[in-house]
Design brief:
This protein is mainly alpha-helical. It contains ten helices and no strands.
Length: about 210
């Protein structure tokens, strides 16, 4: 009689099949693992344990830890852009209000998901040459350029040093504010009620955009 292999239904761990979407469950577990233990201790085995699946399941879907972190960063950029769009949907029509709202969405995401934000913007662990991650990151940057194009009236900001300078300045402003808030260095801002903090952040971004 032939020996049973790991793929044999009698020996395979049935737990992965309890998930309707195993890939999504692993990404969710990976984000929690990243947030609670940090990038240095991140491992596929720990993610599998947290998700309640076999230790081979993450490798099957993502290959290795870098593959999982790459997919997590790509999904993060999609959510990051959605958060910005949600803020813009509540803003007055036109510029600079939409760009300011996008900036507030940027800060919303960074403060709500600090570990994921650091993975996306301050880590070398993801493979940023991965096509899916590259496309997700480019979509977020393209959205910034679309807002800058509306603000400046320059139809193709990628070919305009002035527009690219404006885009970089806007990015630097909101990224700096996000970093100050998520690291706890902006004690004044963190101490404010949410509505007041939003008003102050709006005033800061507006002032910098008009300078």
């Amino acid at each position: 009689m032939a020996p049973m292999t790991p793929d044999d239904p009698k020996t395979a761990d049935p737990r992965p099949y309890h998930h309707g979407d195993l890939r999504a469950a692993l990404l969710a577990a990976a984000e929690i693992e990243l947030s609670e233990t940090g990038i240095e201790r991140f491992s596929l085995r720990a993610v599998a344990k947290r998700a309640g699946v076999s230790h081979a399941a993450p490798a099957h879907h993502f290959g290795d830890a870098q593959g999982l972190l790459t997919a997590l960063a790509a999904a993060g950029y999609d959510r990051f852009l959605a958060t910005q769009r949600a803020r813009e949907a509540t803003a007055p029509a036109g510029q600079p209000d939409r760009l300011i709202a996008a900036g507030l969405g940027y800060i919303d995401f960074a403060t709500a998901h600090p570990a994921l934000f650091r993975l996306m913007f301050a880590s070398s662990r993801p493979d940023f040459a991965d096509p899916v991650l590259e496309a997700s990151g480019r979509a977020a940057y393209d959205h910034l350029l679309e807002n800058v194009a509306e603000l400046t009236g320059i139809p193709d900001p990628r070919r305009s040093p002035a527009a690219l300078t404006a885009a970089t300045a806007a990015w630097a402003i909101v990224h700096g504010l996000a970093d100050l808030l998520q690291t706890g260095r902006a004690g004044f801002l963190r101490s404010l009620p949410e509505s007041e903090r939003t008003a102050v952040l709006t005033a800061i971004i507006r002032r910098c955009l008009s300078s």
